[in-house]
Each structure stands twice: as structure tokens, then as C-alpha cells.
């Protein structure tokens, strides 16, 4: 009885890591990525398990007490063994590589999700150390909280205000980088209502550990209600408000902006491009000094 309880405890601890992660998908992209993971694992186990069993069998057969085992001290080469040793790993590499190749094209972050529902566009800006989500079609914005309608494709446009960062919602899939002066694109969808954790998957400074956000997948009615509430409360996100928001801060509580300045996201991207261009002459001068 004691051993059964211990086994149940170990099993519960082991399976506890399967919730709120890549093994508990809540959208089509994450589900497809989990399938690729399982397929790759199955292909690799097809060679790992026989190899382990063969190692145990060889050790058992060639034990000192087995007089039937042939001792061949002059054995040097076998073409059949060479073919077996190299063909199985080669086939494994080809199969795993094929799965990764097909999956990489089917799950291209820039590839739109096929759906009859009109997508919702969300512009994402990684700041120090928080996330800004702009809804250009709704004219609102939120910090450290992303609300999306369930069953609706979400078209993300992502950039960074400063250092390179990484946007990741494990239960929805497809981690992708944000870079200053550049726009990366990502398409995700939540198929089930709920709240899913999102995070920064790349170290970006002192406040990195608190750079988290939540994704609320709600019905269309609740999403429309949230948009109306956001338009009625909170400050306006203009140039000065964004400059204040961009200042480094840690563990920022979620809040919303009732309005967003026109072309704010484009201005953030262009500002990042200007920073990169201004650094080029400095880099060139440094190279000349080294020479």
C-alpha cells in the first residue's frame, strides 16, 4: 500500500508539468507543434529502445559464465554490421528531418490560419520590462494583458522598443522574436475559453523575471464588452504617454488605454530604425580606429 501511494505521488508530480505548457495545447498551432514533438519522439525511440535492449542482450550473452558464447579475438570487420550500424541512424535522421521540414513549412509564423472568421490584428511592443498590446482596429491598447475572442485567428505584428526579446504563449504555440526597428509576424488562435500564461522567453535585463502577461480567451460578446469598457476608462496612449511607459519598470499591473495615437506602432518601428542607422557611423569609426 505504501509503495502504491508513493507511485501515485511520483506520477502526479511528473504529470503536473503537462499543464499550462506545450503538452497542453489550446489552439491549432500548439496542437500541431505537440504532434511534431510526439512524432519525433516516437521515431527516436524506435532506435533508442532496440539499442538499449541489444546492449543488455549482448552483455547477458557474453557473460563469463556462458560457455556457448563464441570468443572471436581476431574479428575485425563485418559488412553486414556496418550496414546495420549506419543505415538505422541515417534513416532516423531522414525521418526526423522530414518531420521537421514539413512542420516548419506548415507552421510558418507568417502563414495565416485558414478560417472563415475575420482575424483580429494585435500590434505587440516589448518594453523594459512589460508588454504593450495595441488593437488598431478597436483603437485601444493594454499592458501585460491580452484579450482575444475564442476561435478567431489573431494576426500579430511584433517589434521591440529597445533590446531583442522573445514573445511566447506556450499553450498557443510559436515563440517568436521581437527586434527594434523590425516587424515580425505571427498567427495564433485560441480554440478554448480560458486564461493562458505568456512570457518573455529571452533574458532582457533586471526585470526579465517579471515580464509576464496573461491571455484571456473569451467569447465574442465578452470581447466586445471588454473593448467597450476599455474605451470608457484609462488614459490616452499618445506620444508622451508612450514615452513614460517605455521607461524601465518592473512587475507592472495590467491596465488599458482608452485611445491610441494614430500610427503609433509605425512610429515605434521607425524610431528603432533610426537608432540602428545612427549607430552605423559609430561602428564604422570604431572599425577604422582598430585598423
Low-confidence stretches: 278-291
Helix tally equals 6
For the secondary structure, the number of strands is: 13
Kindly estimate the percentage of residues that lie in beta strands according to DSSP: 15-25%
Percent helix, as a range, is 40-55%
Q: What is the molecular shape? A: elongated
Order of helix and strand elements from N to C terminus: HHHEEEEEEEEEEHEHEEH
Average per-residue pLDDT, rounded, comes to: 87
| Class derived from helix and strand content | alpha+beta
Largest sheet: 6 strands, mixed
First and last CA, distance: 76 Å
Order of strands in the sheet with most strands: 8-5-1-2-3-12
Q: Tell me the radius of gyration.
A: 27 Å
Describe what this molecule looks like in 3D:
The protein is α+β, with helices and mostly antiparallel strands and 291 residues long. The protein is 43% helix and 22% strand. The protein contains six helices and 13 strands. It has helices at residues 2-16, 28-61, 79-106, 220-232, 239-245, 264-290, and strands at 120-127, 130-135, 140-143, 145-149, 154-160, 165-168, 176-178, 184-188, 194-200, 212-218, 236-237, 255-257, 259-260. The chain has a six-stranded mixed beta sheet with strand order 8-5-1-2-3-12. A hairpin with a 7-residue loop joins strand 6 and strand 7. Helix 2 (28-61) packs antiparallel against helix 3. The chain starts with a helix and ends with a helix.
